[in-house]
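Hey everyone, long-time lurker, first post.

I ran two proteins through the pipeline my lab uses and got sequence/structure pairs for each. Pasting them in order. The first:
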Amino acid sequence: MELLIATKNGIPIIGQIGSVLGWIMDGIFKVLNSMFGIENIGLCIIIFTILMYLLMTPLQIKQQKFSKLSAVMQPEITKIQKKYQGKRDQISMQKMQEETSLVYQKYGVSPTGSCVQLAIQFPILMALWQVIYKIPGYVGSVKGVFTDVVNQIVGVSGYSDLIQNFMTDNHVTRAKLIMDGANATKDSVIDVLYSFSPDQWRSFADIKEFAGFSDIIQSTASSLSDMQIFGVLNIADQPLTIIKSAFGSGSWLVLAAAVLVPLLAWLTQWLNFRLMPTASQNNNNNKDNPMMNSMKTMNTIMPVFSAVMCLTLPVGIGIYWISGAVIRSVQQVIINRHMSKIDMQVLIEENMKKAEKKREKQGLPPQKITSQAHQNARNIDKNTKGAGSSEREKKVEQSYQNAQYAKPGSLAAKANMVREFDERNKKKK
């Protein structure tokens, strides 16, 4: 299990983004306090999560546009893959890559288009996770609550051993003391204190070496509890621990609230995956497509994984997980409605214009496949309205049958003669 760290993440890019997000979250905390007199970390997490996902909406729209075009391109790409299935020589592989590249060019899409969006979102989401998981390290208003008590603790001789023994006796595993020489750092002491449950705070105040400032310990625990209580749950507690405790004491309301955390985590993640458009929704022939099968497996496993994670991690993480899934689902509904109104031909034309501008900047000649892309777009629109390939095949077959009774001397009759001549030659071969 990952440890709580009061100090900020030092990974390049993620660390810097995390610092900016931390300032935003601290700003939300201060605004809630100054305007409404509310100091609640759970509410702050929800508002912060909603704000972050709203800011990332443009990236999600671009991602959905790529997904929509990918669904359109997938049958052509699958056909190319089947064409070269089992061929692993260099020439065949090169031809397959060239033909696949032409499909992407035809629709004005870059093969790395999705990767670019994910590359932008990934460090933001990682930094967002760091901020939520390590509140004291990023939210100065919360970290400031520990100032007085930590100053008193580090003034006690052998405080590092006292805290470490307390952690061992009370099974505190979500935090770790970081030593600076013979003593633990103040930030790591804050890590430990922030991870305490209400019962652990009471036990900590009973340590005889800390008796001289037990009132400060209790005052800090009370202030932090007011910030951490969300409904009837403490966001520092794990739902699994709360369930066990509530079941033993008969606190059925607390028990129900704790069970709801992993349950809602599963439900919201499942709903989010169901709303996401995929190529499989537009292409029923995906039994032989490993990527589509993999996506279906992930859509089943991830919601279950979310429930397990939110059962064993602090409630605060569950609040973030659930609120994030809810806002993504709402966004997805709105984006899906927006995307359903977009004409595929117009979308392809826009992509082609962007692609041509990029080629101009690179000093490359214009592509000569725009008309082909437009023709395919019109065919796609027809397919989505019900005029599928099977109907076109029926029309072709009917025309073929009608041509057999063409009038002598007509163009259709001459075409029949050519066809019969070709068939006789094939039989001779």
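...and the second, right after it:
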Amino acid sequence: MTTDVRPDETADPFATARQVADAVLFEGYVLYPYRASAAKNRLRWQFGVLVPPAWGTDSAEHPFQRTECLMEPRSGARLSAELRFLHAQRRTVQRVRPDGGFDTVERLELPDRVLVPWDEGAEERVTLVADVSKLTGEGVTVPFTRPAREETEPVHDAEGRLVGRLVRRCARLDGRVRLTARPIDGPYAALRLTATVENTSGWEPDAPGADRTAALPHCLVGAHLLLGLSAGSFLSMTDPPEWARGAVAACRNEHAWPVLAGAGGRADVLLSAPIILEDHPAIAPESPGALYDALEIDEILALRTAALTDQEKREARGTDPRAAEVIELADTMPPEVLERLHGAVRALREVTDPGPAAPDAFAPDVPGTRPDTPWWDPESDRSVDPVRDRITVDGRSVGAGSRVLLRPGLRRTDAQDLFLQGRTAQVEAVLHDVDGGVHLAVTVDGDPGADIRREQGRFLYFQPDEIAPLEDA
């Protein structure tokens, strides 16, 4: 079957979604402290790794991703697809000999950086555009190949003298993208789109028990798909219209999860990523740049990176150009940019914006509340007072100042509660939540920081069935 695959003549529909896709692509690329010698960087690239079929049979990783979603294309619509992944390339370091030859070494010291062996990631893209009408039946299959290659980069010292070179080697990589569509059951003008990405490389391990490091050059790393409709829209997989809920539930997604990602909240672009995202994900506007480690927040990473020693920064700069960019970012970050990273409250912006606030549909209907005060503000309800309120536990009145015996229940998930079993404590406040639940704020007897906790209002919290009243002092 011939396929009409051609460049898209329209403007780039993926420009907005690609910002989030970049974070997915480079998640775990190089982890703080951004040095190849760091133990955590010995196991990188945890998401979206599509392995060769011969190696995947004996591992917990897979050679394919499968994305299924619903779309409502209009007449004459075309589907754009962009597969993105990293192709791992092995970098070795060589020092020049007096005779002009080169010797492979474990490190090459330079005044501004220390070069060491490293696995770099070269970004790869596979793009196609096809008429939606041609996706029914056998659909569209596009095979792709990235040939093996070797490149060298000379390394010079500050005076311009040749001191060594970097040798980069990439292994052959084969794969394919397959797109098919079929109508869903019922009187609906919607199609179920199935997009499959496969690693078809014929590489096999040289010996039984070969490790992941040997397979990585033949893997699609951080693989994800961007899908776009020229006319029409995709349906949300988490909040579909009522008529589509059954069809959405029947979609089968394996090793990928599709979310709406169109600019301005539009539904004409879908991002299928190897991690679970919400519809219309976005990069935080406060983020000053890519730090490649989503397990920590930007402020912590920036502060820790700025605190590295000069020698550690030299090693990081020599690890990878992207690591060098992180060091430069942390060293040159203005104070006002760092201050912007120190927390952002988004949920209250609608309330604090100028103009009258919209009625809060979730405000509890409690007698005595003040309608001109937000429901979450303690001043909105004068009928409750955490310091004076009391409750009855085992027939006894318990409130601020009462002494209790702690017996954390099975519902507790904090392992530290095991150390509090049987300890005595003093109740500091009785708190009521908006769902009608009651919580007791306590300080533990014998805690040397109890006074500080009271000053800061930082207590431990237990429910009434997790305490036993004692005689008050």
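Reply from user beta_strand_b:
Welcome! Quick read of the second one: The two ends are 87 Å apart (CA to CA). DSSP finds ten helices and 22 strands in the chain.
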